[in-house]
Amino acid sequence: MTGLLEAQGVTVRYGSLAALDSVDLCVHDGQRHALIGPNGAGKTTLLNVIGGSTRPQRGTVSFDGRNVGQLGPAARARRGINRIHQRPAVFPTLTATENIVVAALPRVIPRRRWWPGGRRRIAHHRAGTLLDQMGLADVAAVPAGHLAHGQRRQLEIAMALAGRPRLLLLDEPAAGLSAIEVGRLSEVLRTLPRAVAVLLVEHRLDLVYALSDTVTVLRDGRTLAAGTPDEIRTSPLVRQAYADGVA
Ligand SMILES: Nc1ncnc2c1ncn2[C@@H]1O[C@H](COP(=O)(O)OP(=O)(O)OP(=O)(O)O)[C@@H](O)[C@H]1O
Ligand SMILES: [Mg+2]
């Protein structure tokens, strides 16, 4: 079975450092796949390669059966690959609603082209639904720069979902969140529609094991192990890698 996303032989070098060395990764439609590993393992670099912001020196990335290696991040987003970053990236002076509207607009196709403001109305409606889902309805009119870190995280996920992605790339969504916020985030991710596949980079292994169907472990730019959460949890190799150096 071919995957929705297939990365093969991906190699990224920075000078003499191989951030990624011949890494393969496959994510199927609707799958929750986690990418874990110690600091500096190459997780963010692999998300950058899949999202199109880093070009690998070697290797291929295909999405939905097509090679997307030559496409930049915006073109990949149009095809359905959306991401959130290790540090939340929102427009601070725009309200929560406006942030989602801006994210949704490029992917909104008006039902009737002559309807003035139609696309904006649809984007606003989508924003309202997403704010409700994320528990952000109360702060819809608050500028994103005034939101708490956890709320900005939820907002960024809502922005990524506004583009109706088929693959959501999440880089450490739980970083810096309080216990309550982590609980809320976990619930949001658990209830995402299966129309969206998720590639989750996360240091919180409790979240990883609770949310994912499959897990890949990177270390020093190479795949150390891949399997189900149970297989990874009990793998001596993985325990050793984490004992050796995780934040
Ligand atoms: N632009 C860059 N220039 C030079 N080296 C880089 C660059 N980006 C990443 N690296 C290096 O590549 C390696 C992999 O980095 P990456 O950010 O992918 O790791 P990570 O697994 O995401 O780590 P963390 O868990 O700390 O976020 C690290 O050694 C890092 O220092
Ligand atoms: Mg990282």
Keywords:
single chain, 247 residues, Rossmann fold, four-stranded antiparallel sheet, binds adenosine-5'-triphosphate, binds magnesium ion
What report would you give on this structure?
The chain has 247 residues and is α/β, with parallel strands linked by helices. The chain has a domain at 5-89 and 163-245: Rossmann fold, CATH 3.40.50.300. It is 36% helix and 24% strand. The protein has 9 helices and 10 strands. It has helices at residues 43-51, 73-79, 96-104, 118-133, 149-162, 179-190, 205-211, 229-233, 236-245, and strands spanning 5-14, 17-27, 32-36, 58-63, 66-67, 81-84, 167-171, 197-201, 214-219, 222-227. It has a 6-stranded mixed sheet, sandwiched between helices. It has a 4-stranded antiparallel sheet with strand order 2-1-4-5, with helices on one face. Helix 3 (96-104) crosses helix 4. The longest helix has 16 residues, at 118-133. It is globular and about 55 Å long. The protein starts with a strand and ends with a helix. The mean pLDDT is 91. Bound molecules: adenosine-5'-triphosphate and magnesium ion (MG).
Blueprint (SSEs and pairs):
Blueprint: E1 5-14, E2 17-27, E3 32-36, H1 43-51, E4 58-63, E5 66-67, H2 73-79, E6 81-84, H3 96-104, H4 118-133, H5 149-162, E7 167-171, H6 179-190, E8 197-201, H7 205-211, E9 214-219, E10 222-227, H8 229-233, H9 236-245
Parallel strand pairs: 3-8, 3-9, 6-7, 7-8
Antiparallel strand pairs: 1-2, 1-4, 4-5, 9-10
Helix pairs in contact: 3-4, 3-5, 4-5
The structure holds adenosine-5'-triphosphate and magnesium ion.
